[in-house]
Automatic annotation (TrEMBL):
Keywords: Glycosidase, Hydrolase
PANTHER family: BETA-GALACTOSIDASE (PTHR46323:SF2)
The protein's name: Beta-galactosidase
GO cellular component, one term: beta-galactosidase complex
Length: 997
């Protein structure tokens, strides 16, 4: 049965009706505009065919609702929320869409006066998802498609003085939907601004500018093409820089197009590091418009792409339009806040995944300085899953639809110097329609590079782009001349889902090492959680929380920016990894450092260096170094003016370095921290003490409980269960349960491919510790309790023979040692374990925390660039990172001691060798079970984890696994620590005391 396309919104031969050609949005325009944002009357229907008769005619709309424009209707109570990554929520039957096609009819009136009507009236929609019809005063004005691009209609002939009626009918599904299958919530409606332009009869329609550089990269070559609605008889133009005119002229023409050229000596070139902009103004007597121009030259030379002659590295991020309450409707303020944050976090590039952003977004990128990959609104990922990926991509019947998306993007955005690549879309395989799109782009603009990851062979693209390439594959790309040896970019990597990504440094090292690799874009900026207030709880919903099926659940919670705009630990990590400055110590010297400049254009005199010598918790010397003249891509050795100082006993010393912005910039004040580095000083003065004996320890062994106590300490053991039951004083148990071995963590999103095995094959969450022996020995000043256990999990042949030694001293301290010997009496064991360590429990009143180790935020073995050694204070809850989807969090690496306290009394735990630490008010099990933070069941005690080793995070939810060295294998281990009660305030002093063993 062959159906004929009868519905406009299913007709792939129509890219629009009555729609004007796309054009530049002017930076400034003297023409009057009228915003049509605000409340519109709204009627929601299950299908367009159900529209009431005469809906497009002027008249009152009784019983209609009101809706905000712009907004998405799913977040205004209509239709339903649905999230899918790849799947179309309907059969693949292009170009047809379901009969059940949620439809919104929007209506409002516009009052126009006679003066307005002397000029033309242009109606502009900045974004409507997914297709729409427009009527003015009952007459059809046009039809538009491509959700994330503007559509303009000339409605001059349809309007009159006085009240005018405007009707817009929006279809959720259209043939265009087949090309808009991006990984995001399905959202519909007029979601970007709507406005009227009061256009001159002889208006300037378009001003296309191009600023490039000559071969010396010093002279700016400027060209402009001005297009009028009618022949532009006369136009005066000027080019200015920071308010000063640098060139000007007058142009006369009989044609509708005028070309202007200018040459500027010693121009200030635009780069993301030096976002220098010029303003080009055209005046026709009746209208004045301004567009901005940046002088920069993009080219490929010696197989690298270069900006102004320099090979650059992209440290980018993928950006979706997103807001937790408004969905895809974002304000200018949010856009600017996003861009500022990116700049503050050392990000120098942004990919508009996977559609063009608001016009304003690019103005911000121009001003703040970001390299942009602008991407066409095109993805048909669902076709991959039916193994007919090229179905429409390689079908010429769809050519116009494909080409239109690229062409209109280029026509709208080509003046922005920030845009260095045009991307033809995402995840849509390759075929004839992309070849046509590439050709069309090159005809319009050959000054930029063409990108499209789906062109797997880099047949028509200028760069070879891949996503989530593993390190091994990346190395191959870097070392072999494949795909025409085109420069490589990683359009997506470092999947920031949940806790992670880890292992970013390995990627950055590759980018920096290999010439061919020119960086990449982290996936992604924002967690797409939906703000929810329910029963007094605030939380963020993800796929499935609305009963939506099928769904990819929390796969949309994969950004470095949490929904409430809190930068995640992953964002702090990324900032440090990609920082344009790095510092390392120089072997054999305590004062020499090597500082490297990874900027592509700035000299290091743009920054200042703050240094301090820190005695664990206190700076004892500090200073600033300025005038660091280091050229881009160069490095130098500096000597810090550290004066000799006396060593305090039992104290570690560090050099803490922060690289700061020297002057105020658009995005941060002078002093803003760009990078921090810590270099441990290899100096220490050890001093040992002898424990003072107190009253004799008493030992009792009754009913399976072994008690060791005196006036200062009380430790209770179960001789049946082979464990420490409590530790503290006579009237208070500080530890409410002693160490139990543990190899499990509440799985993180990046464990998703390990989780099934870990939990349903190796039962890591089901530990059992069987007692082998318990004995004790009384000495003059201490009692030693020895416990042997066998640790394993349900139905496993691997395990550990554990020997615990508890030495209780009469002074109140207890030294604990655990030796674990790995055994395997069968064949199977996990490829690696989440961790090897112990858990203990403590009195829940001990909520104040202090630790000496990495901090202040969480750190993992493959994500600790944002942490340095120090003494930090917090609370148990404060040490938690509240991920939208609960999972392991809050770990601190390299902890040498910690103290938990109730404001007065506390428990101090000093490690023999540094261990990983987690302190939490919940168990791993409750974390694993909870679907949202409010559902995490609180534990009755403070849960303490001390890890001999804790596996890395990796980014395997969509990307590289943990590096081999960051996977915890079945192995022998040992850990040791000393417990004692302390009063808060004395812990640092107590922690520094070392005893002769
Ligand atoms: C990529 C895709 C993105 C997103 C990501 C996973 O394949 O291009 O849009 O789906 O995977 O989060
Ligand atoms: Mg996809």
């Amino acid at each position: 049965m062959v159906r004929k396309a009868v519905k406009r919104w299913e007709d792939n031969q129509i890219t629009g009706i009555g729609r004007r050609n796309a054009r530049t949005s002017f930076y400034k325009d003297s023409q009057k505009r009228m915003s049509l944002n605000g409340q519109w009357a709204f009627l929601y229907l299950d299908a367009p065919e159900l529209s009431p008769e005469g809906f497009e005619q002027p008249g009152p709309q009784e019983g209609w609702d009101q809706i905000d424009v712009p907004s998405v209707w799913q977040l205004r109570g209509y239709d339903r929320m649905h999230y899918t990554d790849v799947l179309y929520p309907f059969p693949i039957n292009p170009p047809y869409v379901p009969d059940e096609n949620p439809t919104g009819i929007y209506k409002r009136t516009i009052c126009l006066d006679e003066a307005w009507l002397e000029k033309d009236t242009i109606l502009k929609f900045h974004g409507v998802d997914s297709a729409f019809d427009v009527w003015v005063n009952g007459m059809h004005a046009g039809f538009g498609k491509v959700s994330r691009l503007p559509s303009e209609f000339d409605i001059t002939k349809l309007v009159k003085a006085g009240v005018n009626d405007l009707t817009v009918r929006v279809y959720k599904w259209s043939d265009g939907t087949y090309l808009e299958d991006q990984d995001m919530w399905w959202m519909s409606g007029i979601f970007r601004d709507v406005e009227l332009i009061n256009e001159e009869k002889n208006a300037i329609l378009d001003v296309q500018v191009d600023g490039t550089l000559d071969d010396s990269y010093q002279t700016g070559l400027f060209t402009a093409r001005i297009t009028g609605k009618q022949p532009l008889k006369e136009a005066a133009w000027k080019l200015s820089y920071r308010g000063e005119m640098v060139a000007s002229g007058e142009a006369f023409a009989k044609e509708a197009q005028i070309c202007v050229n200018a040459e500027l000596k010693d121009v200030h070139p635009w780069t993301a590091e030096t976002p220098e902009l010029y303003e080009f103004t055209v005046n026709t007597g009746t209208q004045e418009v301004t567009v901005r121009c940046g002088f920069r030259r993009i080219e490929i030379k010696d197989d690298n792409f270069r900006i102004n002659g320099q090979v650059i590295l992209l440290n980018g991020v993928n950006h979706h339009d997103y807001n937790p309450t408004e969905g895809r409707t974002v304000t200018r303020e949010q856009m600017e806040a996003d861009i500022r944050l990116m700049k503050q976090y050392n990000i120098n590039a942004v990919r508009c995944s996977h559609y063009p952003a608001n016009e304003y977004f690019y103005d911000l990128c121009d001003s703040y300085g970001l390299y942009v990959i602008n991407e066409a609104d095109l993805e048909c990922h669902g076709f991959e899953w039916v193994e007919n990926y090229t179905w429409i991509t390689d079908d010429p019947a769809w050519e116009a639809m494909y080409v239109d998306r690229s062409v209109r993007m280029v026509q709208r955005d080509r003046n922005h110097p920030s845009i260095i690549m045009w991307s033809m879309g995402n995840e849509s395989a390759f075929g004839c329609n992309f070849k046509s799109a590439a050709k069309a782009i090159r005809t319009l603009d050959d000054t930029r590079l063409i990108h499209y990851e789906g062109d797997f062979e880099a047949e028509v693209t200028d760069v070879y782009s891949t996503m989530y390439t593993r390190l091994k594959g990346l190395k191959e790309i870097a070392e072999y001349e494949v795909k025409g040896n085109k420069p490589h970019v990683m359009c997506e990597y470092g999947h920031a889902m949940g806790n992670g990504p880890g292992g970013l440094k390995a990627y950055q090292d590759m980018y920096r090492k290999y010439k061919r690799l020119q960086g990449g874009f982290l996936w992604e900026w924002y967690d797409h959680g939906i703000y929810t207030e329910e029963d007094g709880e605030i939380y963020y919903k993800y796929g499935g929380n609305y009963g939506d099926f099928p769904t990819n659940g929390n796969f949309c919670i994969d950004g470095i920016l949490m929904p409430d705009r809190t930068p995640s630990p992953g964002m702090e990590e990324y900032k440090q990894i990609i920082a344009p400055v790095d510092i390392t110590g120089v072997e054999g010297s305590m004062r020499k450092i090597c500082i490297s400049n990874y900027y592509d254009f700035l000299d290091l005199d743009a920054v200042t260096l703050h240094w301090e010598v820190v005695a664990e918790d206190a700076a004892i010397q500090e200073g600033w170094m300025t005038d660091l003249a280091v050229a881009p891509h160069d490095s130098t050795v500096l000597t810090l003016p550290i004066a000799p100082f006396e060593l305090q006993a039992n104290t570690d010393y560090y050099i803490n370095l922060t690289v700061c912005q020297k002057e105020d910039s658009l995005f941060a004040p002078a002093g803003h921290e760009i990078k921090k580095v810590q270099i441990p000083m290899q100096i220490r003065r050890d001093e040992f003490s002898v424990r003072e004996a107190a009253d004799q320890l008493r030992v009792s062994d009754r009913a399976g409980i072994l008690t060791v106590e005196n006036s200062l300490v009380k430790a209770r053991f179960s001789t049946v269960f082979g464990k420490l039951l409590s530790f503290g004083t006579e009237d208070r148990a500080y530890l409410t349960e002693g160490p139990r071995m543990n190899v499990y963590r509440a799985t993180i999103d990046n464990d998703m491919y390990k989780k099934e095995d870990w939990m349903n094959k190796y039962f890591l969450q089901k530990p059992v510790e069987e007692t082998a022996y318990v004995n004790w020995e009384e000495e003059a000043d201490r009692t030693i309790v020895r416990i042997g256990t066998y640790f394993s999990c349900y139905n496993q042949s691997w395990g550990f023979n554990c020997n615990y030694t508890y030495e209780i001293y009469s002074c109140g301290q207890m030294h604990v040692e655990l030796q674990g010997k790995a055994v395997q009496r069968g064949k199977l064991e996990p490829e690696f374990f989440p961790r090897i360590g112990i858990t203990m429990r403590a009195d829940r009143k001990l909520q104040n925390t202090m630790w000496y180790g990495m901090g202040p935020g969480e750190s993992y073995v493959d994500s600790k660039a944002a942490s340095v050694m120090g003494i930090y204070k917090n609370t148990v809850d404060g040490m938690m990172t509240n991920y939208v989807f609960p999972q392991e969090n809050g770990h601190r690496e390299q902890v040498k001691w910690f103290r938990i306290g109730d404001g007065r009394d506390g428990l101090l735990c000093k490690m023999k060798a540094p261990l990983g630490l987690n302190l939490a008010n919940y168990t791993d099990e409750s974390l694993e079970q909870a679907q949202h933070p409010f559902a995490i069941e609180k534990a009755d005690d403070v849960i303490i984890h001390l890890d001999y080793l804790h596996s890395g995070l990796g980014s395997n939810s969509c990307g590289e696994e943990q590096l081999e060295e960051n996977k915890v294998k079945l192995q022998d281990f040992a850990l040791a620590f000393t417990l004692q009660t302390v009063t808060e305030g004395s812990e640092i002093r107590e922690a520094r005391i070392q005893y002769i063993e």
